[in-house]
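pasting for ref
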Amino acid sequence: MPQLIVQVQTTVANVQDVEVTDTIQEDLAQHDLLPDEQFVDTGYVDAELLVSSQEQYGIRLLGPALSDNSWQAKAGKGFDVAHFQLDWPRKPSDLPARTPEFPLESSRRASRSGLC
């Protein structure tokens, strides 16, 4: 029989759901209640949490991702997220013209430095 653990976090109105996912997981870890899989609502998922949940806590975070609300997706112009594909085992990404991009680690560094 599956076990269901429910954890509730109350915050002030200006705190986004995604900001408390790690807090919830940390609390579950402190009480030795970490699940193998954690099912969450859209607001609790982002790419960084999908990775960090697995790496830090061994949790497979499952939930629908937010839709792409970028101006490119809304306008149907430019390159939105749907135009890029990631090959996680090899780590390069393909640009829409299918030109190999920088390795993901280089892209992360560039993003953090504000170059992207």
